[in-house]
Amino acid sequence: MQKESRANKPNVTEFILHGLTQDKTVAKVFFSLFLLFYATIILGNLLIIITIKTSGQLNSPMYFFLSYLSFLDISYSTVTAPKLIYDLLVEKKTISFAGCIAQLFAGHFFGCAEIFLLTVMAYDRCIAICKPLHYTNIVNKHVCAWLVAASWVGGFVHSMVQTLLVVQLPLCGPNEIDHYFCDVHPLLKLACTDTYIVGVTVAANSGVISLSCFVVLVVSYAVILVSLRTRSSEGRLKALYTCTSHITVVVLFFGRHKAFSTCGSHLTVVCLFYGTTICTYVRPSSTYSPHQDRIVSMLYGTLTPLLNPIIYTLRNKEFVTSLTLAI
Fold first, then answer.
1. Measured between alpha carbons, how far is 100 from 218 in angstroms, rounded to an integer?
2. DSSP label at 287?
3. 72 C-beta neighbours (distance < 10 Å), count
4. Is the separation of the CB atoms in 306 and 48 below 8 Å?
5. Ordered alpha helix ranges (H), 131-257
6. Is the pTM of this model over 0.70?
7. What is the pLDDT of residues 274-313, one digit of tens each?
8. Which class does domain 11-194+290-326 fall in?
9. 206 within 8 A of 296, measured Cβ to Cβ
10. What are the sequence ranges of the domains in the chain?
């Protein structure tokens, strides 16, 4: 009985991360690159938050949601980027058991909350374009606050489920994680027990969230496009312009006019973003590929927070005007 009890207790106190590369020359290049990316993410998203909070013109629900999206981008990138940048300079990349679990929880918490928030933003654009006369009554300040709160709660519940599924597993070694941060599938590989049921549960949990949010996004923009068929060319172009920025961001925590062509290309990237997310989490751990997972993780973990400020500032005349006045 005593032997069995010891076997069920994890004896791993720290983990060794394999990181992105073992080549010192390549590591120095990655260090400079990711340091630049992370600094741009922080400064760019902080600029969005400060501009929205200090400007009296950017008080619509779209900018309210955008400020929280920028905060989530900063938080999500901070979960992995500082540790990654530091590890590129050191030879032995270690992380404590508690730090690893905290990184796992925070990554899924902020990532899932961002997925929900992007879905909320799609709903907001759908109401704004399809029911402009009733928009202020439907999406008022109280509704906005509740939608943001629901996104945070949804992210917390999802993250708790993923974390508890991993924590209860006996990790008897080895303690090497074939990744640059702590995530579900790399940790499942270290468990000294059958993880098939846990892997399927993890995939199902992530799958329900990713696929349902993706369906809501597709339906929202399908409704927008159908609604635009009844409008004039000028009204159609104006409405499409308001949705293209959000579609681009979703892509990079998922016709007869130039605007139709732009919207279509952005929607293609939406499929690409959700495709990478689904490929990472909506699959059994037995199909886990460390090399592919690193690439996919960098795509949605670094590229999205990096491009959000560019998309929402350079493409938005109202925001640029407010920023200019603030400066």
1. 35
2. G
3. 27
4. no
5. 135-138, 141-167, 184-188, 196-228, 233-251
6. yes
7. 555 555 555 555 555 666 667 767 766 777 777 777 766 6
8. mainly alpha
9. no
10. 11-194+290-326
